Every structure is written in structure tokens, then in C-alpha cells.
């Protein structure tokens, strides 16, 4: 396996361009989240969905009847399958924009944070337990600092 990360990010935008970062931005953030934690050829899908579609996904897969900012779905390959797919992120632009405004953040910075957060979930990071949350949040903050983005938790 290669010692270098070769990442391919596919962005499907069902929402529209207004206020949404470019595919290249998503790729840059995803790469930063995986750098030093993955190697070889990796593929990630990112879908940008409207409120209704995001709500349906959250209800179907998490049992929560509301649109959330980001959902992460790690791909589990079948036995003996050689897949490059790490998983899929679903982001909901209206929720991301609303949260950024409520939290006094730049929308682009919030997208960066949520993309990195979701990518870490695809790698198995979790925030269910306080100790795991502190570890994941510290890692997110270090990655975001590389983009001059402030700690999103403080």
C-alpha cells in the first residue's frame, strides 16, 4: 500500500450553489482530516441535501425527526471486497447556514468544521463518551487551526 494519501472526493449537490463551498474546498478539508491517519487510494462521497431530504435521512438512520448539520456513513465492505470507499457525508446547507449565524461563525468555517468532524467519524472517532469527545474535539481544533479557523467549541 502507498505511504501517501490519494484522495478522491465526489460532491453531489442537490441543494444549489448559493452559499455552498466549492468541491475543491470540501476535498481540501477532507484531505486535512485524513492526512497522517489514512494512506493509499481513498474515495469519499459528500452529498448536500435540502431540509426535507436531510430530515428523512436522519429519521431513517438515526430515528431523529429533524434535519441535522452532518451525517456520516462509514462504508463497510463485504468480505474479500477491495473497496476504496471510506464512506459518505451528508450535509444540509440550510442547517449549516442557520447554525453559523446563530453561533456568529463564518459559514465557510462551519462547513470546514463539519466536514472535518464527519471525516473523523468515518475513521471511527466518536464523541459519545466525554474522554472520546475531548480527543475528537482536540483533533478537530488542531486540523482547523491549519486553516486559521478558531476553536469551534469555545
Describe this structure in words.
The protein is of the alpha/beta class and 154 residues long. It is 44% helix and 19% strand. It has 5 helices and 4 strands. The chain has helices at 23-34, 51-62, 93-103, 107-122, 130-145, and strands spanning 5-13, 40-48, 70-74, 85-91. α1 (23-34) links the parallel β1 (5-13) and β2 (40-48). α1 (23-34) crosses α4 (107-122) and α4 (107-122) crosses α5 (130-145). The longest helix is centred in the last third of the chain and has 16 residues, at 107-122. The mean pLDDT is 93.
In short:
By secondary structure, the protein is an alpha/beta fold.
Task: Compile the SSE list and pairings.
Layout: E1 5-13, H1 23-34, E2 40-48, H2 51-62, E3 70-74, E4 85-91, H3 93-103, H4 107-122, H5 130-145
Parallel strand pairs: 1-2, 2-4
Antiparallel strand pairs: 3-4
Helix pairs in contact: 1-4, 3-4, 4-5
Give the strand tally. 4
How big is the Rg? Answer: 15 Å
| Tally of helical runs | 5
The SS-based structural class is alpha/beta
Poorly predicted runs: none
Return the average pLDDT rounded to an integer. 93
Percent strand equals: 15-25%
Q: What's the helical proportion of residues?
A: 40-55%
Please trace the helix and strand order, writing H or E for each element. EHEHEEHHH
Largest sheet: 4 strands, mixed
| Apparent shape | globular
Query: Could you give the distance between the termini?
Result: 39 Å
Could you give the order of strands across the largest sheet?
Answer: 1-2-4-3
